[in-house]
Fold these 4 entries.
Entry 1:
Amino acid sequence: MPGYEVLGEEEKKEILEVLETGVLFRYGFPAQRKGRYKVEEFERKFAEFTNRKYALAVSSGSAALKVALAALGVGFGDEVITSGFTFVATWEAVLDCGAVPVFCGIDDTLNLDPKELPKKITPRTKAVIPVHMLGAQARIEEIMSVADQHNIPVIEDTAQSCGGFIKGKALGSYGAVGTFSFDSVKTLTTGEGGMVIMDDPNLYRRASEYHDHGHDHIGPDRGLESRSFIGFNYRMMELQGALGLAQLSKLKEMIDHQKAHKTRLKKILAGIKGIRFRELVDPDGDTATFLAFSLPDQEKTWTLKDLGKKVGLGLVYFFENGWHYYRNWEHLLLQKTASRNGWPFQIEDGIRKLNYPKNLLSRTDERMACLLVLPINIRMEEDIFKKAEQLVAEASKIV
Ligand SMILES: Cc1ncc(COP(=O)(O)O)c(C=O)c1O
């Protein structure tokens, strides 16, 4: 899973090239930088890789979501639909720009269910954010079709699935905007970092300006640049751009290793009675960072989870996970905020009060209760495969 497993000479070479110039900032310093623009080069190569006209590098995957929402003009009073199985950053970004996250259930892909999506759309819906969770595709073509019928732009949160595709088309390149994370546990990592991709020049201009305090990036003197709206600092720095270049060149190889491990592990775990593997929209385009599967009921799932612990195989039970699953986001459900006056859940005159009942996504709860996930690394010792065989043997006695 994490690209830090293969950090090596390529990354060192790129980083040293930056250090030789002493220029860490992505803009300016033309005389000192010896023609080296690492962030810009990373953006160019990433745009080519995803076959989009524009790529804008940012400081994180969370920042990428903020920038995407701002580029689309999402703000106070708007609603944004996303899935109840995602990392908290997806809806934090929505709340942070003043809009309201609306949660939709998941289907057998473990991603936003296009059949449930129409029920969540209201006149206030200003964006849909499907998330390609656990390395693999949402039914993005169906989701696009629903969103297009209602003229609602789609932001694909591709933080967990960089390098994934459907029939050769990159994940993140379906919606109006695609966002990526390169944080320290992602396959392509720059330590912290992210990317926003799009085809529309106007969206790119707005994203580029918003992520850099509104700078229009026109003219030779940064200090004299003008602006058309307020922004913030979500810039990527040159060292991250350098890492990104080296890591992008290795991405296919990293994914190929993961795929080989996943195929082997899937074959072994298929020996567990009643096991059902997650549905993949296009198995070839899976980035293979996780092997997700379900058991017929919650009791069997618990039993297998405990057996995993016994044989030393770390299975993630997202049903109990506080960072990726609606039911456990108690700070959201109880509307806890750092703000003295209750923003963004309430406003001072009391007009706005959001409602997030714990049992909102009961069908998703049923799915999650029976789901177990095995993380796949780029490098996996033989020991892991032996433990998987042990798990199957133990399970055959009980499950
Ligand atoms: C689905 C999803 N969206 C957004 C993010 C945020 O990315 P970052 O950690 O780079 O801010 C993550 C991070 O794990 C994620 O999994």
Entry 2:
Amino acid sequence: MPWVDEFRALTGRFSGQIEFDAPLSRVAYYRIGGPASVLATPRTLEDLHLLHLAVLKVGCPVFVLGWGSNLLFPDEGFPGLVLRMKHLFTEVREVGPGRIRVGGSLGASSLLRIAAERGYGGLERLTGIPGSVGGMVAMNAGTHLGEISGILISTETVSFGQGAESLEVKIRVHGESDFSYRRNHFLSPSDLILHAELNYVPEDPANVKAKIDELYQRRKATQPVDLPSCGSVFMNPKAWGLHAWQVVEKLGLKGYRIGDAQVSEKHGNFIVNLGSAKASDVRALIRLIRERAKNELGIDLQEEVRILS
Ligand SMILES: Cc1cc2nc3c(=O)[nH]c(=O)nc-3n(C[C@H](O)[C@H](O)[C@H](O)COP(=O)(O)OP(=O)(O)OC[C@H]3O[C@@H](n4cnc5c(N)ncnc54)[C@H](O)[C@@H]3O)c2cc1C
């Protein structure tokens, strides 16, 4: 890309990790994806400012990456900056009775470990989700126990877009209309979630830990957690009163394979990477399932995985 040398010069004082022509397969749970022109993992607010100024100067596209657990990157890669929110803000702090402020880069497993130590009831709903707090809010992630929006009070965001001349932190107190099933309705593609405030119910730490442990065991028994995937590929088609895995099973597609992408034998709504799957293999499998669901069962399946093209 013609702008990359200028970008490199503009970010000389970057204190986080910055790589050029970096394979996205390394940072995606799926282990799939070609190179990003720039892959930057900021550690400080100064790093964010440097990246922002460089983006304004060169005008490259930006993609916000959390922990990469719900993404399918293209085989061709991404011709811009992938801004990886992995190490920026990871603290958890009590801010009032039943309220915590958590960093957007914190992983769900660390948050749950702290919840089990301190007795934060209500957070068990996030058990087994391998993403970051920012990614979970962006996706309104959840389990059968509820979605993150059910315990979310507010978020702090900055906008990284071309229109924003400076990184101004915006605080938003959330209401129901900001979210629906696996969707948020308030973020622009270049908005970054820096922090979120969550509520919890004080509980005996041993009880919280017991619930989390039980849910982890259930996951291990029912999901192919030992193979790269993006979790559920399709949202549950609630209008038909079915789970997406039931649709795939009705179609007889469990275990069906294109290249190294396979519909998991263990869970029909997971497509796993058996080793060297390409994004085109996964996309072909998704297309096949969608077409057959529509033609044979009249069901419209919608993707939960975010597919970059
Ligand atoms: C084995 C497995 C099991 C899973 N189980 C579940 C489950 O039970 N329930 C569930 O809901 N999901 C599940 N998922 C999917 C995934 O973990 C969630 O969608 C999670 O919320 C994604 O978080 P992430 O940080 O990895 O985001 P990414 O995958 O990196 O990104 C997802 C989206 O969020 C945006 N984003 C990420 N971070 C930020 C940020 N800081 N600011 C602004 N936008 C951001 C990205 O731009 C992108 O659009 C599972 C995935 C796997 C691999």
Entry 3:
Amino acid sequence: MNPSGGLQWHWRAWRSQALWRPTCEQISTSLAQLAPASSELLLIGASAGWMMPSRWLQGFAKVTTWDIDPLAAPLFRWRHAAALKASGSELVCRTGDALAGFGQLLGKHPDACIFFDNVLGQYRFHFKNPEQAAQKIDRVVRSLRGREWGALHEVCSGPVTRRCPGASWPAMRRRVQGSPDSAAFAQDWLTQLGAKGAWLDHLTSTVFEKDTVVSHIAWPFKPDYCHWLQIGWVRH
Ligand SMILES: C[S@@+](CC[C@H](N)C(=O)[O-])C[C@H]1O[C@@H](n2cnc3c(N)ncnc32)[C@H](O)[C@@H]1O
């Protein structure tokens, strides 16, 4: 059983397309603001790329996707291969654990930038013990020193007081990580999301270093349950 992907994820993503549209548009806007220096992309946790705009992928000469889910590669090709062919970009889809032997994988793609596509925040579901998950995330991030990379992941998630308000869903907010007013921002943002009760920490608070510019995005995962996403890019 894959706790962060597989059939259940594909089914939810397929039938939630309307609900998730504003979030996907904000992800697309945020990605469009990045200017990767590398022409090669390693996309980790690609799944079928349900929330990934083909337009951003078209900017790369080569895209290699990785996912442990055997359905991910054929579905990713189904959703994105035509667009990548149109832009003359090479697409290679791999099935397997990209984070076991991650250093070797990086070594095989010395010039590629890396994008963790909604996978690091899911890592706590792959371990019995959250501490082990946090250590794994930390090891992965430390191995990226000197590389160009980015990530989309959850900060936290939880129940909301009202059903997803659709068009009035909060606008994306861009901020510098670790700004002095971070606590006030978090409080205000959670209020905007309509957070109630206890929210789950997705163990990603140290993925981006202080001073990284990060976009914050609301994701109504279910009508009554929201994920707080962040997306950022790191150049060394
Ligand atoms: C929330 S889904 C990602 C969604 C995807 N980016 C999209 O737009 O559809 C998380 C994905 O990460 C994959 N995954 C989890 N651990 C992984 C690992 N170690 N290596 C590669 N993929 C992994 C899961 O199989 C799952 O498809």
Entry 4:
Amino acid sequence: MLCFVYLLLSGLMIFLQFPELYWGKVGFQGYDAVFKLSDWGLSWEEADALGNRRWGRNYHYLFAWVFVINGLIYLGWNLWQKRFYSKMLPRREELSVKYLKADMKNHLRFRAPTGTAARQYGVLQKISYLLVLFVLFPFMIVSGFAQMPAFTAISPELIDLFGGRQSARTLHVICTVLLLLFVVVHLIEVLVAGAVNQVRSMITGRYVVLTESAEGD
Ligand code: HEM
């Protein structure tokens, strides 16, 4: 989480000093942009004054390596323990429309699972974790590498795959927004499921399972 916060903040500091996004190989002030912060009320000069590219780059590159190394250890450990298979892979019956609808309804009504269901991930939770771990995170890393001049020198094919550095950058930022959305929804879910219980279980392993009657009290 600390790593994510630093990557987000440092990324924001870099972005603010170049607050427009482009598609393809080329992009500069005055060029056709796919996103302009000035359209949202903050001019280029105002954004530039808020950002700090030097600080941002120092921390972004540092925490990018922490992120990659940490991710590889997490992946290796969980593959070794078969946790992705046992905890995150949805069972066949969970993927039925009826099951998915019921889970979605519970989420929209902010109803947390009780009893044994509270000990397992819900199907939407499993799908979102798998998407974040196996789609968004790897995409962040690949689109990050595609923006590094040193890496482009070693492997120009990667940047060609994105159709140019500007496209890689735009996709990196879109992915950032998706990850931010995931974190916000995730934090809401933790609050709904009982923040103290959830956080304590992460730190000490002690998790109090709510029963239907306890929930209604
Ligand atoms: C969850 C993790 C990450 C988030 C939220 C994130 C976010 C961002 C944001 C918002 C920017 C600013 C885009 C711009 O204006 O140019 C950025 C830039 C960048 N990111 Fe990330 N990033 C993450 C992970 C990574 C990783 C893992 C790498 C490397 C493998 C990476 C490499 C880069 C590079 C090279 C830039 C351009 C920096 C520059 O212009 O000097 N990022 N990132």
